[in-house]
Amino acid sequence: MVVSLNDKNKDFFQMVFEVAKLIPKGRATSYGAIATYLGAKRSSRMVGWAMNSAHLDKNIPAHRVVNRNGMLTGKMHFATPSEMQELLEKEGLIVENDTIQNFKTIFWNPSEELL
DNA sequence: CTAATGACAAACT
DNA sequence: CAGTTTGCCATTA
After folding, report:
1. Range of the domain at A88
2. pLDDT category of residue A89 using cuts at 50, 70 and 90
């Protein structure tokens, strides 16, 4: 992996991983929520980037992390595009048209739940 | 160092 | 209200 994980950056990545692991089953969160929780709400894209490295670690449920719209924008980055949806449905979530239904209901806010 | 890209988000038209 | 555009921040070329 060309991912030059320098010491400083590693912390940010690790944070994202930790939060992702803490996401309760049957729930999901957004990149912005994690970014905000990490104190870098403006770096929502970086969270996604972290997930890109996260997909290497099977312990990280990256499928529970989607954009604020609940759309599975990163499904293409999985082993198979359908795996993300499959996993989410297995969790009890309702995924349709690459978008999580009732996302607002299953949304998991680390800043509140994890606080 | 500048330019381009991206698993996003908010603002604007 | 929906589609389009700009902004942010970090990484890569």
Report:
1. 7-106
2. very high
